[in-house]
Write a structure and sequence with these properties.
Layout (H helix, E strand, L loop, with lengths): L5 E3 L19 E7 L3 E6 L34 H14 L5 E5 L10 H14 L5 E6 L7 H9 L2 E5 L5 H7 L9 H10 L3 E7 L13 H14 L3 E6 L14 H13 L3 E5 L1
Parallel strand pairs: 1-9, 3-4, 4-5, 5-6, 6-7, 7-8, 8-9
Antiparallel strand pairs: 2-3
Helix pairs in contact: 1-2, 2-3
Bound molecules: iron/sulfur cluster.
């Protein structure tokens, strides 16, 4: 097995980071410069932080204690998304990525298969180079049609912060059976060509709720080795956007961990 490469964000000089408001809620936003995906257009599927089946302790978009119990999914049809994306791409041909999800869960959007097909058709017919990216926590991936559509995008990124069920229950707090840890793991194992994104956090005084711990790191390495994702992105929290006292992990700490994932032969990028 070859050793994977590690890329740290500070190597990418010249990247411009635009701030977005935590409560952002147009369903299509951008183009904006994303740290991970370049000049991007973002499609979301509900109010930020309210339209997924998780209740992460550090959710930057919503105070987890007041979060609604059910995911709030809008009725916007896929044709409206397509029309907005088409027009934005015409206005800004330098867009590098069209991102589905991010602050909402795309796999809970019932028209996702139609939307993905239409966007891929648009890309093909215009011979464009932008990439279609899906960012998911996997909640709706047990639906075969949704899963198949996610496997068709250029890059499918699954969120995996906690490698064992007890921490997942305490920190991620799924609101539905379909969003539980065992279902997430089974889904990840079945997916073709998955990429993994892991966000780390610490909570001073409540260490039992943080995922930056020797046990979780060890268990994550074991899972990465088993899943063998195409790539791993390691991120941490924005100090001014997290809730419940969660704090970011330092770049140096993530850098040291990235060297261990690279030892597994998996390309890894670190985003402080
Ligand atoms: S997956 Fe977690 S962090 Fe992301 S929007 Fe849902 S609750 Fe917030």
């Amino acid at each position: 097995m070859g050793r994977g490469s590690v890329v740290f964000l500070h190597e990418k000089r010249g990247i411009l980071c635009m701030k977005t408001k935590p409560s952002i809620y147009p369903l299509v936003s951008g183009p904006a410069r994303s740290r991970r995906f370049g000049l991007s257009l973002n499609l979301n599927f509900g109010p930020a932080g309210e339209s997924c089946l998780w209740n992460c302790i550090y959710c930057p978009w919503h105070n987890a204690k007041t979060k609604p119990k059910k995911a709030s999914i809008p009725k916007q049809n896929w044709e409206s998304y397509l029309a907005t994306v088409t027009s934005a791409l015409k206005k800004e041909p330098k867009i590098e990525t069209v991102i589905l999800g991010g602050n909402s869960e795309l796999t809970l959007y019932p028209d996702l298969p139609n939307l993905v097909s239409a966007l891929l058709k648009l890309k093909k017919s215009s011979k464009a180079k932008w990439k279609l990216i899906a960012l998911s926590n996997g909640s709706g991936l047990q639906d075969k049609k949704i899963r198949t559509s996610c496997e068709k995008v250029d890059q499918l990124w699954l969120k995996l912060d906690c490698a064992e069920d007890p921490l997942f229950k305490k920190a991620i707090r799924p609101k539905s059976r379909n969003a539980e840890f065992k279902f997430l793991l089974n889904t990840i194992r079945e997916l073709k060509g998955v990429r993994i994104q892991t966000a780390f956090w610490k909570i001073p005084g409540k260490e039992m709720n943080q995922n930056w711990s020797a046990d979780n790191l060890k268990a994550l390495l074991k899972l990465y080795a088993e899943i063998r994702p195409l790539e791993i992105h390691l991120t941490t929290l924005k100090r001014n956007r997290s809730s419940a006292g969660a704090q970011p992990v330092t770049f140096e700490e993530m850098e040291a961990f990235a060297l261990r994932t690279a030892e597994l032969g998996i390309n890894t990028e670190v985003f402080p």
